[in-house]
């Protein structure tokens, strides 16, 4: 990786110029959709083409575009018939939708501890929580690492459970030759701007090989209509429809996705190589390698996380703390957590996680500057 003189300005964690190179494309897309004689602004032919593009990319049975990654999870849970009295096993560490979507359909999230290094759900911890009320496992890929989907797939099959794959952050990741999003009965992606295939707005998709689940999700996303007979409502649905402007924009940006993912992977590999010796000093990078890796966020575990964050800021590097509380400790979800529950790895992750910039248009000089800032942290 070539090194040049680093600029004196702070390197932001969320880049304000994320779509600067796509400004003309975005303006053209808005005009194209707005002036189309069809005047179709949601769930039009562009959305259908985007769904088909992703379906072909993934080798999936169906892809259904919807309003967000969060509502994608809700649509799957509803379509799977998960409701009051049911339990869904989720990681104790992660984003709020892992719990609030389950609670939103009336079911109970059951929190399993995570692996101390990869930070994804521990299959053994999950299996220990299965009861007659358990209806689904909902693992999430976290930061740079996919969950152990082969073990979780076998676990779900063995116990007759639905496997719902929260792959919102993992588009482009592949584990054992199989893409993220295709391991479960259904998976999801999110296109919020900071994701690896983010766009200038909110959106998501459901990915599934189950035709009945797909048919139900399609109806649920559009007020329970079947897409053929307008104003005939077969189900109590939601408004979770996909925007034609976002569909057109993503269609036109898709050819550059592989290049952007490769750049993220290159940066992540450089970080991991340079940070691995720091593990003996209390700063631990994610596991090396490319199998089952995603590069949405690059996250360190630091015993003195807050000191490291201040050190980086003093060196002009912005960083970000994701999920400073485990889900069962959040006020909104604590009532659902087992009163005698103990999630030591999730609690440690919440204390130690610190994420670094890894977006694809970082320059080599900026990457080296970030790297050296971490490496000069006093131990």
TrEMBL record:
<dbReference type="InterPro" id="IPR015424">
    <property type="entry name" value="PyrdxlP-dep_Trfase"/>
</dbReference>
<protein>
    <submittedName>
        <fullName>DegT/DnrJ/EryC1/StrS family aminotransferase</fullName>
    </submittedName>
</protein>
<dbReference type="InterPro" id="IPR000653">
    <property type="entry name" value="DegT/StrS_aminotransferase"/>
</dbReference>
<dbReference type="InterPro" id="IPR015421">
    <property type="entry name" value="PyrdxlP-dep_Trfase_major"/>
</dbReference>
<dbReference type="Pfam" id="PF01041">
    <property type="entry name" value="DegT_DnrJ_EryC1"/>
</dbReference>
<dbReference type="InterPro" id="IPR015422">
    <property type="entry name" value="PyrdxlP-dep_Trfase_small"/>
</dbReference>
<comment type="similarity">
    <text>Belongs to the DegT/DnrJ/EryC1 family.</text>
</comment>
<keyword id="KW-0032">Aminotransferase</keyword>
<dbReference type="GO" id="GO:0008483">
    <property type="term" value="F:transaminase activity"/>
</dbReference>
<keyword id="KW-0808">Transferase</keyword>
<keyword id="KW-0663">Pyridoxal phosphate</keyword>
